[in-house]
Design goal:
Number of helices of chain A: 10
CATH topology of the largest domain in chain A: Rossmann fold
Shape of chain A: globular
Mean pLDDT of chain A: 96
Number of domains of chain A: 3
CATH superfamily of the largest domain in chain B: FAD/NAD(P)-binding domain
Strand order of the largest sheet of chain B: 9-8-17-18-19-16-20
Mean pLDDT of chain B: 96
Low-confidence stretches of chain B: none
Number of strands of chain B: 21
Helix content of chain B: 25-40%
Largest sheet of chain A: 6 strands, antiparallel
Order of helices and strands of chain A: HHHEEEEHEHEEHEEEHEHEEEHEEHEEE
Number of helices of chain B: 19
Strand content of chain B: 15-25%
Low-confidence stretches of chain A: none
Oligomer: heterodimer
Largest interface: A-B, 74 and 98 residues
Structural class of chain A: alpha/beta
Number of strands of chain A: 19
CATH architecture of the largest domain in chain B: 3-Layer(bba) Sandwich
Radius of gyration of chain A: 26 Å
Shape of chain B: globular
Structural class of chain B: alpha/beta
CATH superfamily of the largest domain in chain A: Nucleotide-binding domain of ferredoxin-NADP reductase (FNR) module
Strand content of chain A: 25-35%
Number of domains of chain B: 3
Chain lengths: ~375, ~500
């Protein structure tokens, strides 16, 4: 025997044998106060990440032709929207026809405004859901707004002090929030926005509203010549003067902008680790659809629906009226994570696989960016609106 | 109404283990999980071109197929072992401590570890061997107690496991005082304290020694595809056995009948499921504070829950770096970086925002060079807050506070290792106690269950399991269970509660 603590023979062992009695005594001496239902840290988690927030449409304004700014008032208990990082998006969910549809939109209001109960998005009328928002949405309507999400924001630990924003069309929306955040002091960096649009009238804001020592805006018009405005596409010549050692580059816009900008940034030999791109939602594939059967398990309910080779599994479910979870709709966030029981499928060809390694190994998919290649059977969690 | 023999609340490690066990015995089982993936802490997430491990630094108790550890045996029994690919780690840890000026790396394996101890101190090897023999005896004694279902023969205990009995009631510091080892050996043996998060004056020596022995003797490994691989392996097995898992399905109520027996559960959306047996893989704080009707909670359960001390609140910085491990000059997998090896003092430092944090830091590429794209590296650093300081953080200051703590941890790592990382951060994620509270619902963002003080350590908890059981039909397991925190413990605890539930079912006839 090696261990000896007490000089009294047998004392160590006696003490050990008495441990339950010791523990029992300590429990006896503890008051039988009620256990708290929650804790401050858990409440802060809920405030920052409430899931969905019931909100009322406060105002809809056409800020440019076919481009609408919609502001929401929070109907949550605390009357606020969560504090967020400028550049993040929210989802808006509503019943449209027979579908329950959800779409992500960059927030165009500021983090401090969220604490005041206001949240704003800006929508370009260009599809089934944005048409609905632009045409049928009216003041007083109630919707579910999903909590702010995404990684498209400036972080002072990761990024340098200057953001060069390369924006195309409505892709400028996250930068509107960033500019407001810099202006109000909720974010701390300098920002230069290269803002590409076809025509001046499409611009969502007047640059002079934001221009300051820390905020610079350079509109670039591709389809018209206007005095005092740059003309063309955002290429190396326009980018180069704004890139220093202190610059990180954020890109947001249509597919064509990404291709053009990435060529330009390549040419300027800017390391890809300094470039962040916001992800576009996954669109239908071109061509004639092939029809497949899709069996969807949601808890213990089973839906037999049709799917098309040209549309994502998520869209197939939404069209059939199934309330399936979705958030980023670009394959990134993992919110729609679902299990394949059988069938062949294809990841959207225009994006890299953002699933976890084990998801691939055990055949889990993100239905928002996955197309069927055969009849399929999948297990999808229900949407929990809270 | 839907009906199951057993409903498991929470698909964390304990819940997954429990479900697999219940189903293996041929019972029907539903697992309800509030998140959209299984695992609880055992998960991963993707940022840009990096997949980050959410919690696991290293897994002890797996061993090899030829020399299986206790958790591998458990996985074998549940039918999940072959679904997981493991990577063995080479070294145990590199310990860097400012106050004592330590910077050394310890290997796995008893012989190698002891040999290295000889370099640290004249009698190092001899002392290490003695310490191993005590630890080994503790381990054997525990196995024996387990084999006898908690009813060991006192004569056998006294003859074969005298050291176990003698040291069993002491804290780590009391035990090391008695053993009288030189400071450097004591500090070296204490290196793993941050994995249990209670300080040496309080932490049960028995529990600590049992854990470190598992590391020293059996080594450690990580799953190739992060701990998410383990969680999905369990999910696959549960489906294979006919079990159901419902995600996005938070249980808000445990229902009881007139006799006070469990009769079902209710989900947040109002869905009810009938069952006579619930295994809760969450904290008793949540079970007794929120899930159960207040009138159904016995006074003793309140006392017990109030008696426990919530352990460390987690904080982790995840870094995707745009330079390779070699370019950066990172040599090790697992770093323990302390201000002092006096963990009573260190624990005190970790009570506030101003204090300096101990950190356990992992460079995943050291174990798995392919874990991130060529020319990049993954680093994650974890610390604990030993007080509930995050309760005072206001919403508008939250991001700033997270970044400030992270900045200091990064700087401390750079200072300790001489490796520069702050200028090549391509992706960054920070998990604070608020984050852990969000994903797991654990009170105050605790990641380590209840602290394992000597008077609430492994043995008294195991000996008092039935005494701590109050509501017929309800068992509570996982990281808050009788095996204490950690990966091996939480699976084992879930399985143990499942075994007890199976016995309850047999006794009650349903």
């Amino acid at each position: 025997m090696i261990f000896k603590k007490s000089d009294i023979p047998g004392e160590d062992i006696k003490r050990f044998m008495g441990m339950p009695a010791e523990r029992r005594k300590r429990i006896d001496e503890t008051p039988a106060d009620p256990i708290p239902e929650t804790y401050a840290v858990n409440e802060l988690a809920k405030t920052l990440h409430p899931g969905y927030i019931k909100a009322e449409v406060k105002k809809k304004t056409e800020v440019a032709p076919d481009r609408f700014t919609i502001s929401f008032r929070s109907c949550s208990e605390n009357g606020r929207f969560p504090f967020f990082r400028a550049g993040q998006y929210v989802t808006v969910s509503s019943n449209v026809g027979g579908s329950f549809a959800t779409r992500p939109y960059s927030i165009t209001s500021s983090p401090f405004e969220a604490l005041g109960g206001l949240l704003e998005i800006t929508v370009h009328k260009s599809g089934f859901f944005s048409d609905f928002l632009a045409d049928s949405f009216k003041e007083g309507d109630i919707v579910f707004v999903g909590e702010p999400s995404g990684d498209f924001y400036h972080d002072d630990l990761r990024d340098r002090g200057h953001v060069l924003a390369i924006a195309g069309g409505t892709g400028v929306t996250p930068f509107i929030s960033m500019m407001k955040a810099v202006r109000e002091g909720s974010e701390d960096f300098r920002i230069t926005v290269l803002y590409g649009v076809k025509f001046r009238k499409e611009m969502l804001f007047d640059p002079s509203v934001f221009e300051s020592e820390r905020i610079k805006i350079i509109p670039v018009l591709s389809d018209e010549y206007v005095e005092g405005y740059a003309h063309g596409f955002i290429g190396p010549d326009l980018i180069k003067p704004h890139v220093t050692e202190e610059t990180n580059i954020f890109v947001c816009g249509p597919e064509a902008l990404y291709e053009y900008a990435s060529e330009a940034l390549n040419e300027l030999k800017i390391d890809s680790s300094r470039i962040r791109s916001e992800h576009n939602v996954c669109r239908d594939l071109p061509g004639e659809p092939v029809f497949y059967k899709l069996k969807v398990h949601m808890r213990d309910t089973v839906y037999d629906i049709d799917s098309r080779s040209t549309e994502t599994l998520l869209v197939a479910m939404e069209r059939a009226g199934i309330k399936a979870p979705s958030k980023c709709r670009s394959g990134i966030c993992g919110f729609c994570h679902s299990r394949v029981i059988s069938g062949e499928y294809l990841l959207a060809p225009d994006r890299t696989d953002s699933r976890r390694l084990a998801d691939i190994k055990f055949e889990y998919i993100h239905p928002c960016c996955t197309f069927p290649l055969s009849d399929m059977e999948i297990d999808v969690p229900p949407l929990d609106l809270g | 109404m839907r009906q199951y023999d057993v409903v498991v609340i929470g698909a964390g490690n304990g819940g997954l283990g429990a479900a697999a066990k219940v189903l293996t015995a041929g019972k029907t089982c539903l697992v309800c999980e509030k998140h959209n993936i299984p695992g609880g802490f055992a998960t991963s997430f993707v940022r840009g071109r990096f997949e980050f491990e959410a919690s696991l630094h290293e897994f002890n108790g797996i061993g090899t197929p030829e020399a299986p550890g206790s958790t591998r045996k458990l996985y074998d029994e549940l039918g999940v072992s072959d679904r997981i690919e493991w990577i063995q780690l080479k070294d145990a840890y590199r310990l860097i401590s400012k106050e004592e000026g330590y910077d050394f790396t310890m290997p796995f394996g008893l012989d190698a570890f002891a040999a290295k101890c000889a370099e640290l101190c004249p009698d190092g090897e001899k002392i290490a061997r003695e310490f191993f023999s005590i630890c080994g005896q503790i381990r054997q004694a525990m196995n024996y107690i387990s084999e006898t279902h908690g009813r060991p023969d006192p004569k056998v205990m006294a003859e074969k496991y005298p050291d176990y009995l003698a040291c069993g009631s002491y804290s780590v510091n009391e035990a090391f005082d008695a053993l009288g080892y030189p400071q450097i050996m004591r500090d070296n043996f204490n290196a793993y304290w941050c994995y249990l998060g209670a300080n040496g004056d309080e932490l049960s020596f028995l529990h600590y020694a049992n854990m470190v022995y598992s590391y020293y003797s059996g080594g450690a490994c990580i799953p190739k595809s992060r701990s998410h691989e383990i969680s999905l392996a369990f999910e696959e097995r549960i489906h294979e056995l006919g079990g159901d898992i419902w995600f996005n399905s938070e249980v808000t109520n445990i229902l009881t009948d007139k006799e006070g027996h469990v009769s079902g559960i209710r989900l947040r959306d109002g869905t009810e499921v009938a069952t006579r047996h619930v295994i809760a893989d969450c904290s008793p704080n949540v079970v007794y504070g929120r899930l159960m009707d207040k009138s159904a909670v016995p006074e003793r359960a309140l006392k017990l829950t109030n008696f426990r001390k919530l352990a460390g609140k987690g904080f982790t910085v995840f870094l995707g770096l745009s330079k390779s491990r070699e370019e950066l000059g990172i040599t090790d997998h697992n770093y323990f970086i302390y201000d002092t090896c006096d963990n009573v003092k260190q624990y005190e430092n970790m009570k506030s925002f101003d204090g300096t944090a101990a950190q356990a830091t992992v460079c995943l590429n050291s174990a798995d060079p392919d874990c991130s794209p060529k020319g990049t590296a993954i680093l994650y650093m974890t610390t604990l807050f030993t007080e509930d300081v995050w309760k005072d953080v206001e919403e508008k200051d939250y991001f700033r506070t997270k970044n400030e703590i992270a900045r200091r941890m990064i700087a401390r790592f750079e200072e300790a290792t001489g490796v520069c990382i702050h200028d090549c951060i391509e992706e960054l994620a920070i998990a604070s106690p608020v984050t852990y509270a969000r994903y797991t619902g654990h009170p105050k963002g605790t990641i380590y269950g209840y602290e394992g003080q000597y008077y609430d350590g492994l043995m008294p908890r195991i000996q008092m399991v039935e005494e701590d059981h109050f509501v017929p039909g309800l068992r509570i397991g996982g990281g808050f269970g009788e095996r204490l925190l950690g990966y091996p413990s939480s699976y084992k605890s879930g399985v143990n509660e499942a075994s007890r539930t199976l016995r309850d079912i047999e006794k009650e006839g349903c």
